[in-house]
Input
Amino acid sequence: MSYCFSQMAPRKKVTKTPTRMITKDIGGDKNGGKRTIRISRMSRYYPTEDRPRKLRSTKTAFSSHKHTVRSSITPGTVLIIVAGRHKGKRVVFLKQLNSGLLLVTGPFHLNGCPLRRINQIYVIATKTKVDISGVKLPDRLNDAYFKRQKLRRPRHTEGEIFDTKKEVYQVSDERKQDQVDVDKQVLEAIRKNKEKKLLFGYLGAMFSLGNKQYPHEMIF
Amino acid sequence: MVLSQFHFVEIGRVALFAYGPDKGKLCVIVDVIDQNRALVDGPATGVKRKQVNYKSLHLTQFKLNIGRAMRTGNLLKVWNKESMQSKWDATSWAKKIANKSLRKSLSDFDRFKLMKAKQARNRLIAIECGKLKKQAKKAPAKPLRVRKRKS
Output
């Protein structure tokens, strides 16, 4: 391909005239009638020294961290919770949230574990998986939804020390509704499984180690 | 202790590797090298012909009728003719080994299912036991005749 400059269409010259000044009419006698004024004002302050710059650091904010999940944990995996309020319970893993925490559900009716976040380090992944590919989770289930609410601690004023009630955590209706919605789908997915009766019993039962059961020798 | 209690190291004795890289594999003692070692071969089980200390072998009840230092190919023919693998698999020893490895490979859900199956079986046994007890209560059994020792 040969380019010939003379045969090329003439490039349109777009000249941007930098308008920095504007002429404005001013009133009054013997004032010259016009003034050329800058459009943008000059800065009021010019620092005499360079602003101190921060040194480059390799630290990154938590929000930009990469959160990996163990390869054994995939959506629908039955997890054994090993620490915390729900330790010993077998729950269904739904998805990983942006903070890296795992979103799980009991389902609530089987073992009392609600929609909850847990860290994967407090969890044993079993080989049992439920097919939850058809389960649609509400979009609002994210880290902000599950963030811990700070309850007002009662202020002790004179004479009212034992009267003011402590604020107890109340489950919001939104949470209850989401729990019902998600669990209905998860339970449907479990029902489709061949071994559904035993799976229901399995998810309702608690995990424990017996004599001569060594976790490092066991397959989960 | 009677001689017939023991299995002997002899040409043709089928042995099981107790430890080492070939652990769990069957082989045939093909020749005796000296007091401690034997020449061993297991063409059907993936054991290469090699010298092995008796300490790493567990002798089985089976013995093949082979000549000393029989070659691998011929040994394989004898092995297949005797269908040694199926004979071994039928022994309770082999079944115990298989059960052990199966138990180890159970997942958490499998263990749960096993527990439920055991529970169901034990409940049935308990029911039958209860029935027998009831029967025994209604018709008490004759007391066992006590044999008097000759003094």
Remarks:
- The first helix of chain B runs from residue 72 to 82.
